[in-house]
Amino acid sequence: MPIDQARVSDVFRFFENSILKHGKGEWAGKDFLLCPWQREVLRDVFGTVDEDGRRQYQTVYIEVPKKNGKSETAAGIALYMLLMDNEPGAEIYSAASTQNQAGAVFRVAADMVRRSPMLNHYLKVLPSTYRIMKRDEPLAFYAAISADGDVQDGVNPHCVIADELHRWKTAKGLDLWEILERGTLTRRHPLVFAITTAGVQDESPLCYRYHNYTRQIEDGVFEDAHFYGRIWSADKGDDWKDPETWIKANPSHEKNGGFLKHSSLQKQFTKAVNDPAQVPEFKRYHLDIWGQHAESVIDIERWAENHGGYDLRKDPIGADDLIGLWGLAEKHCIAGVDLSSTTDLTALVLLFPPVEDGDQYTILPFFWMPEARVRERELRDKVPYSQWIKRGFIIATPGESIDYRSVGAKLRWARELFELHEVMLDPWNSRQLSTGLIDEGFTCVELRQGFQSLSGPTKLLLSLYLDRKLRHANHPVLYWNASCLSLKNDGNDNIRPAKPDRSRDSKRIDGIAALVNALSRIDTGIGKTEAGFSFVAA
């Protein structure tokens, strides 16, 4: 991606050439000096341009521990967007969950204006209304707003600074985010800039959605040319007690060329050691480790190695092509189904057991979602559903709910083409589909979704992918589902997939759930048939 060096130089000059000055603490009144990580973010966000020469990134998510200069960075960006971005009538908002939190960035920005002769010449601070106005353009302003205030749909932001996104926990916070995001649609090149410390997964659904989206882009699950995400944190397996971990997680640490004193972190660490109740706070606030984090159990890089010679994320081939390339016609298979009605995906997975020892299990997945919900879910989940629909990876059925007739038609297609033995279904909401299929001669089996039924096939799934015994062509929806999988354990060595909370979590595992249902019919404990496998007795 091209970098416009002139734009980069402009933003660096604004921050460092005696224009911005710190407003409090030991740095009060001194020139703003960018840390290396801040220079990197500003260079990437403001210097990366598209083919039309416009700023490419429209949504930015920055996650960094406390005391690394979040508020100062955000305040400087707000003032730059108001004064230097050449947007007529620019409306700049710093938004937070509460008015007091929203005022935090505003107060830093106001101090910067007061201490800078140049900024004070062009801008006027109105502290009583939490506004900063352009003196020669009253319609251009910067304002602090909050979820606990009265924000109307009429806002038209050119830039939104979303501060401490992990605190946006309430329904009002989610509503404010959607209002601000919708409000940017009429701007030429808007910027939504979220900056936060790690939160608690179950309590901060909006922030964790963006955290997870950033990680998924890093892992290659998604591509998004208009999204820029960076996370500074300790990694899984790092020793939280090791000072090297502190340096790694804190980009403003003095050993990283920043201002954060090692002794300050040492003091917080000592408090945590002396009071174990403070250990989670030290990890979250100073190492950016999310609380109550449900770890994904699938190594997505190892999952990708089970491609079987094709990668649907890159290769323009479909299911019909794979059937021919892999020689699946007339082969034995089992269908696993995971049904939904409105908010989730519906998934059908055709599982082809190996013919000979050493062969792979082959997977053909199919997905559905209601057409009327696509845009809503795409905005909320930050998942490219519409792109997947266009490429044929998801079937969009008309209306607000899944049309199960489309699923039935796919099963009839499978029965015509393959030796389809059974259709495995979750008993929940399945009778509408299974009753008609049974009348047509399908063998439908309801599988209870408990530990006893799902532990064996779940362990089989993990064993197969680790041994590279799956073949799935990296179907992008199933790839995403695999990256989202976490497990529940009953304490007796029994496991099963953990269904995400649909109202709070953007993760989905529907394709994996359907695959586990299908795997439940594979008997790995007795001798194999001539086909190289045997089914569990009905």
Summary of the model, kept short:
This protein is an alpha/beta fold and 538 residues long. The protein has 19 helices and 17 strands. The chain has helices at residues 5-16, 36-47, 70-83, 99-115, 117-122, 171-183, 205-218, 243-249, 262-274, 279-287, 300-304, 319-325, 374-381, 385-390, 404-417, 431-439, 451-466, 476-484, 510-519; strands spanning 59-63, 91-96, 123-126, 131-134, 137-146, 159-163, 191-196, 227-231, 332-338, 346-352, 361-370, 395-397, 419-425, 444-446, 470-471, 487-489, 495-497.
What does this structure look like?
- The longest helix has 17 residues, at 99-115.
- With 538 residues, this protein is an alpha/beta fold.
- The protein has helices at residues 5-16, 36-47, 70-83, 99-115, 117-122, 171-183, 205-218, 243-249, 262-274, 279-287, 300-304, 319-325, 374-381, 385-390, 404-417, 431-439, 451-466, 476-484, 510-519, and strands at residues 59-63, 91-96, 123-126, 131-134, 137-146, 159-163, 191-196, 227-231, 332-338, 346-352, 361-370, 395-397, 419-425, 444-446, 470-471, 487-489, 495-497.
- The protein is built from 19 helices and 17 strands.
- The chain starts with a helix and ends in a 19-residue tail after the last helix.
- The strands form three sheets. It has an eight-stranded mixed sheet, with helices on both faces.
- The protein has three domains: 5-232, P-loop containing nucleotide triphosphate hydrolases (Rossmann fold); 237-293, no CATH class; 300-519, Nucleotidyltransferase, domain 5 (2-Layer Sandwich).
- Strand 3 (123-126) and strand 4 (131-134) form a beta hairpin.
